[in-house]
Amino acid sequence: MGKTLCEHKVASEMFDLAGDVLGYDLKSMCFDGPAEKLNETRHSQPALYVVGAAAAAVLAETEPERLKGATCAAGLSLGEYTAVHFAGGLTFEDGLKLVARRGEAMQEAADQVDSGMASVLSLDLQIIEELCKSCRDQGEILKPANLLCPGNIAVSGHKSALEKLIPAAQEAGASRVVELAVAGAFHTPLMQSAVAKLQDALSEIEICDTRIPVFSNVDAAPHTSAEEIRGLLARQVVGPVLWEKSLNAMIDSGVEKFEELGTGRVLRGTLKRVNRRFPADGFGD
Description:
By secondary structure, this protein is α/β, with parallel strands linked by helices. Helices cover about 50% and strands about 15% of the residues. The protein is globular, with a radius of gyration of 18 Å.
């Protein structure tokens, strides 16, 4: 993860700086694992942030025309921090410090309760909401957490409720239900204990007004105000990710092409389901 990027000096130096900030060798962990350690929330979030930021830096250096004239930015969940950094709202170091605190706080919240997430394919949101309601017992939480694109919604909540949902969704016509390899029920009230810790971290970090709008996961609306972004980043950990709505809002704002920076193909995959007329390239896989 990120190894090819580090063939470029700018990315290698960013990984080295990240190791100094974090107090452990992130570069070695990303390159050599072990995977179990890298997949821990406290490590995976800084890793994803650094890879995304490094991809943007390398692309700006090697193919600047691809980023010239960018009109807005967005990122899925953790990726929103990379988007804010790219848009000029956070320095690389400050963004990394925030992401590290976020990962630790979310890991601690996840450790408090047996919970998880699952991706449900080929069912409408209304049906999934009804299934969540029928599968959770009194006091349990189970709800849509990542609204990615038509037919691809991630559900998050107590493990006992999630275990009921999987066969229920299959019976309701889901083509596939996949448990996700995450620490807990992200983007639900089960992460509430992480909010205060993240707010403390956000209050200690300088956030600037961004040079281009960042479309928030929370409301799928564009924001440039530092104070608005600060509040939205705190709310994001307990609210659903409105990714499909964000993509449509960016298209409505006049975006003609998308660039996906960092590891994975989530943007390109979901964009094909939202509106395949819009081209998207990737860099940093």
